[in-house]
């Protein structure tokens, strides 16, 4: 382990008279890992959201008229999502599919979209967030959101 990190933790533990009980530190590790899992779920969902919206932009603009800047942004988002999914294209596509299914659940009770004044489609009463599905897909069916302090 890095000596600077060891020194920093020794300083922290001395300054705060932190517990020397490994069981507490084990519990803290579990809490931090749960927070990391939640961050990964949220990042995957948000990256897929951006890819979703940028794909809509391409469809609305026409592929041949999309500015290079936007295409570069889409490629960058796709690259980050691909890396987050461990270069697993099927996993990346599945996360995108979960976002698509979530977006399709935005319809109202009569099956109609609810729109903001500028045309953005809003979440309806039947909206199902993608996060839980993504969480279960990435970390298993027993994965739960990280508890907040």
UniProtKB/TrEMBL annotation:
Q: Which Pfam families match?
A: PRA-PH
CDD domains attached to this UniProt entry: NTP-PPase_DR2231_like (cd11530)
Which molecular function GO terms apply here? Answer: hydrolase activity
InterPro entries xref list: NTP-PPase_DR2231-like (IPR033653), NTP_PyroPHydrolase-like_dom_sf (IPR023292), PRib-ATP_PPHydrolase-like (IPR021130)
Question: Superkingdom of the source?
Answer: Bacteria
State whether keyword Hydrolase applies: yes
Protein name, UniProt field: Phosphoribosyl-ATP pyrophosphohydrolase
Keywords noted in UniProt: Hydrolase
Q: What is the lineage of its organism?
A: Bacteria, Pseudomonadati, Pseudomonadota, Alphaproteobacteria, Hyphomicrobiales
